[in-house]
Request: fold
Amino acid sequence: MSVTWPLAVAVGFVSGTLSGMFGIGGALITTPAIRLLLGQPELIAVGTPLPVIVPSAIAGALTYARKGLVDLRTGVIAGIVGGVFAVIGARATTLVGGSVVLIVTAAIICWTAADTLHLAFRARRPEHERIAHAGRTRSWLWLAGLGAAAGIYSGFLGMGGGFIVVPALVRYFAFPPKRAVATSLVVVSLLAIPGTVTHYLLGNIDVGLALQLAIGVVPGALLGARITTVSADRWVQVGFAAMLLVLGLTLGAVELGLL
Reply:
């Protein structure tokens, strides 16, 4: 191992904790950290987090499952459909270049943060609307659409897709925030597998670095899931939004040469 391995393990622990807390897969932390703290090239920063997502997401999902918070059917259908689209997204990464990918990532992260805050503080939705939205979990078309969107972004941005899945489940499927986080981890664990294979074949994964990150992610994910299960739903959403906003603004500023 290189002299940077303790930092890589620490990054893994932090990303695993946030993965378990917010159902995001953890690459929202590892991608900028690989780029900014560990000094790796853009496409390595995009590809390397994907294999690390799998153990992190599984560990968090199992913790939530013991609390009865996982919607397994929704997670599996969206994850399997998304896996196909993750390959398409990963192939597109090479076509547009690493810097463009990270700037797009920053913009999407910031938009998601603003939308999540809106969801946290808006008035309670009417009961008929909540029932109608909750019924979408029975629609294969809606679940396939969710999986396709998450898969494209997972492969294209080298992330688990949770930053798409969690807000979408809350907004369009009327999921409570904790159930959205828990179900998202099922989706991202499935999405990460084909994306990992594709990015590995493209040469975008540093296997040694991925192993170092993986040491920290599982204990982090277990801790993060426990924190969320005892937190109020609104503050889960506010914490999710705050994390996204800081990361998005920082990553965008660095890639644009402002920092």
